[in-house]
Structure formats: structure tokens, C-alpha cells
Amino acid sequence: MLMLVLPKVGYQCLLAWYHQKKIKLYVQQYAGINMERVQHRTVTVANAPLADIDTWFLYLRGKYDLVGPSPMEFDDACKLHRNKRTRFNVSPGIISPFMVKRTSGIAHQDEQQLAADFAAQATPKHRAQVFLIWSLQRIFGAPTRRLYSPRQFKLLGVTLANVSMKEAVNRVVKSLNCDTQLGDATKFAFVNADCANKYVSDAGYQQTLNTFDTVFADGIGVKIAARWQNIAVTENVNGTDMFPFLCAELAANKKSVYLLGATHSVVNRVAAKLNREYPELKVAGYRDGFSDQADAKELHRAINQSGADLLLVAMGAPRQEQWIADNAASLNVKAVIGVGGLFDFYSEHVSRAPIWLRELSLEWVWRLGAQPLDKGKRYLLGSPLFLLRASLAARANKSITTTANAANKELNHDLL
Ligand code: UDP
Fold it and tell me: Which of 81, 190, 285, 388 is the most exposed, having the fewest neighbouring CB atoms within 10 Å of its CB?
């Protein structure tokens, strides 16, 4: 590594000297293992840091590890509460688990929590796993172009919100604190590559989604399609990952939830597990998604009388979005979300991919293996079809927007 870095640094110093630019040395104090002070020197040329050689010296001297929580400035570390300092039980790392999760778009926990969790289980196997995922991300995933992060963008005709998981949960919770009348529920949905394929050939579904207040960007397919338009998806926001964060917030805010969808045994298990895991969260009621829906009035009455703040509808797309659009006017809940297969996962009726596969954005491989007959068409035919559609749309869009102002792009970027 040093053999690669040193000639580069030497060359840049020569250039700096030739162009008479200032070479400066900064010394920063970081917190090492057991809060030991670690001096980290950075050489800058005209205020831009040169290759970070000191990191590697510190690594060779055993002050940094290859994998570990990201180095934290000593003063900031001192401000942490004592019981939040467990991250310093191990050395800081050049590659941090947070960096890996952020690259994969699933950095839903905050950095402190991830660092503490890593320190608690920093086995060689766990370190090797983080290193391997980081390497694969570098080989396959890292974007080479500068990407924009607009607050929303259009994917094949539907406007998607480009937000982090935290912002997404906040949006839902905020909608629960609004004063609403009958029929005023805020509507949320998720869109992944499969949904996009469906609404491209189903104008009704597309129109319905565009009447929703917020549609979240879910999955690697949407991320790739966005990247083709130089858009960075902030985070993969899907219902299953959102659920624990949402439940924690609902419990803290004393809100109640009604569960509608999946089979009777699945939704029953979801309600029981929620009562166990979040005793503060009130499950106002639940019903399966296969019962005869003919008596809609009776169902509206049951949901309204339950006093639920939030309604989760898990009937798969586009059925659930259509159900929401058709029935919202008769409901007095504050918000409603279409959550797809969430109940199947939460009840453990269908197993979820291990975290390392999700970090590599390969959850679809697991789902394909688990339900080959159900999901074969969706992933083996649907995914290439979606990518083809998205790339054609991106090409067409580029020819329209090449002259457009980059500032406009930042505000609201259209992906046809
Ligand atoms: N489902 C339902 N009623 C129906 C059809 C499906 O409640 O008429 C449920 C089904 O039991 C499953 C969920 O909807 O729990 C659909 O899961 P899937 O993984 O297909 O949804 P996706 O996340 O792909 O939209």
C-alpha cells in the first residue's frame, strides 16, 4: 500500500512546489482503543488533503485496525456518555461497518449504535465478513460519476421520495400527529422494480400511486435506475426494514395500529409478536387479506371503531394500493401504508435474507431461492425487463436534459 501511496504523494508535492501552492501539515487527535489519544497527521496541498499516508502508518503501529468503528475525534469522544464508550473497547478501523452499510444503502441505525454493536461482537469472522463485503462493494458497486440527491425523482412515470429511513419514519409519525377528518388519511406506498414493471403496463396502478402522498424508493433495481440518471438514492426504504423503527416510534408516541392483510394465521402471529416485542404499542385490531371483502362497510366500521391511528395494508402490489385508494374515503385513520409481504417476514412465515446478502443488495437471490415458483418470473424475467425499460428511459431523458440547468436537476429530477 505504501509503495503505491508514497510515489503519488511525492509527485503531488513536486507539483505543489512547482505551482507554488502551500503544503500544510494538520495534526488531529483521535480516540484510539481504551480512549488512548492517537495523533493523526494529514498533509494538505492548497487545502486539499493528500493521500492519507498516516492512516497506514497508524495501522502498522497497531493504533488502527483494518476493520473497526470509524475513528472519532478525541474531544467528541470525551463528550460521549460513559456507557456509550464501548466502541473504544476495540481499535478504530480504516474500514467501518457503518461505511459498508451506508454504501449498501441500509445504514438505518445511527453510527454510534453500529459502532457499539460491532465492538460487542468483533470476532475475526465478523471482521472478515465486513472486509469481504467492503471489497465486493468496491469492485462492483462504487459509482464513478458525480451523483445528485434530489428530494424526489420520477421513475417511469411515478414520483418517488428520496429520503433516508429516518426521514421516512419521521414522515409517517408526523402524519399521525395531524388533525384529520374522515377520509383524510395520509397515504404511503413503496415502489420496487417489480412494482414499476406492473405500473408501466397498468395505467390505473400508476395513476393510483401518483395520488399517494409519499411513495418510497425500495430496492437495488430502483437504485440502479436512478444512478443511470446521475441520481443517488439516499437509502433503500422498504417496509420490512422500516417496521422495527416505525414500531419503536409508534410505541414511544403511544399510537395504535390496525393490521389488514396476509392469511389469518400470519396476521394473528404478527399481532402476537408485536404485543410481545412492543408492549407499549397498541394493536387496535387485525384481519386477514383474503376474507370476503364484499362487506366493505363492516370492515370500515371495524377499523374505525378500533380507533387505530395507523392502518397497514399487506395484500401485495397493486391490490393493496387499489384497496387503499378505493376505501380511504370511508376510514378515519390518520395514515395508511401499503406494506406488501411485510407480515410474512415479520411473522417469520417467509425467512428474510441474512444481513450480509442484504448488504450486497442481493436479497432478491434469497427470495428467489426461498420461493422459486412464486418469484421466478418476477426476478428472472422482470428484473432484466425493468433494467431495459429504465435504461431506455434514461437515454431518452438524457437527450432531453443535456441542456438543462444542473441546479434544476437538484430540485426535482425527472426519470421519465
Ligand atoms: N395477500 C392478501 N390478499 C390477497 C393476496 C395476497 O392478503 O388477496 C397477501 C399475501 O398473503 C402476502 C402479501 O399479500 O402476505 C403479498 O406478498 P408479496 O410478497 O407478494 O408482496 P410484495 O411485497 O411483493 O408486494
Answer: 81
User: What's the pLDDT at 414?
Assistant: 43
77 and 194 within one domain: no
pLDDT of residue 22: 74
Q: Helix (H) and strand (E) counts for the chain?
A: 20, 15
Lowest mean pLDDT among 135-144, 262-271, 301-310, 366-375: 135-144
Q: Are residues 164 and 114 in the same domain?
A: no
Query: Whole-angstrom Cα distance, residue 151 to residue 13?
Result: 40
- Report percent pLDDT > 70 for the chain: 89
Q: Domain boundary residue among 333, 348, 365?
A: 365
Other CB atoms within 10 A of residue 32 CB: 23
Rounded to whole angstroms, how far apart are CA atoms 153 and 390?
13
* In a domain? residue 386: no
**Does some domain include residue 159?**
yes
Q: Which of 191, 344, 347, 377 to mutate to test the pocket of ligand 1 (most atoms within 8 A of CB)?
A: 344
Lowest-confidence segment of 122-136, 322-336, 390-404 by average pLDDT: 390-404
User: 315 C-alpha vs ligand 1 centroid, how far in Å?
Assistant: 4
Please state the atom number of ligand 1 nearest to the C-alpha of residue 317: 25
Residues 95 and 174 in one domain: no
Q: Is 150 in the pocket of ligand 1 (CB under 6 A)?
A: no
- Tell how far the Cα of 310 is from the centroid of ligand 1, in angstroms: 19
How many angstroms does the Cα of residue 279 sit away from the middle of ligand 1? 26
Nearest CA to ligand 1 atom 16: 316
318 touches ligand 1 (CB under 6 Å):
no
- Clarify whether residues 163 and 202 are in a common domain: yes
175 and 266 inside one domain: yes
